[in-house]
Amino acid sequence: MIQNKIDYIKRGAFDELYTPKEAIECILPYIPNTVKIIWECTAIENSEIVNVLEANGFKVIKSHLKDDLDFFEYEPHQYDLIITNPPYSLKDQFLKRAFELDKPFMMLLPITTLEGKKRSEMFQQHKVQVLIPSKRFNFIKEKKGSWFQTSWFTWKLNLKSDLIFMNV
Questions:
Q1: Which of 24, 89, 130, 148 yields a CA-CA distance of 20 to 30 A from 115?
Q2: How, if at all, do strands 150-155 and 105-110 pair?
Q3: Which domains does the chain have, with CATH numbers?
């Protein structure tokens, strides 16, 4: 749980990067056919994650801390998969909470998330799989793109390989 919600909302410089449409479209083939309901736990108004998923026939449960639906305290009654682009300064907490919920997930995170002893142990224990796009996504933050590579960190999707390089 995050102690101070004001600090949670006003975090690091790369915490409010809005996911571009192409970042969602490239993962559609990797969503299992059994998935009908997806929880987007950091959904903002006009979220491309929500828009693309709904346009492709998924029911999307939207939540966000600003709406008093804190990912660390709230969980929908029924959903099949979490898909989100969480605040990067809180990636460890989001990953830990997602593993605790014991539901499949796809999180868009910097590729450097693979670094670090604690995360390495966590990823090995849970058998995380990663979808790696062939290019950087152009996140929009105050009309500037991001300079770093992101990838989709997944769990419980039973992908054919632990590392999948996607042509985007």
A1: 24
A2: antiparallel
A3: 5-166 (3.40.50.150)
Q: Which residue has the higher pLDDT, 129 or 136?
A: 129
Cα distance between residue 14 and residue 147, in whole Å: 10
Residue 7 buriedness (CB in 10 A; 0-12 / 13-18 / 19+): exposed
Give the residue with greater pLDDT, 146 vs 147: 147
Give this prediction's pTM.
Answer: 0.88
DSSP-derived pairing of the beta strands 129-133 and 150-155: antiparallel
Terminal Cα-to-Cα distance of the chain (whole angstroms): 35
Whole-angstrom distance, CA of residue 142 vs CA of residue 61: 27
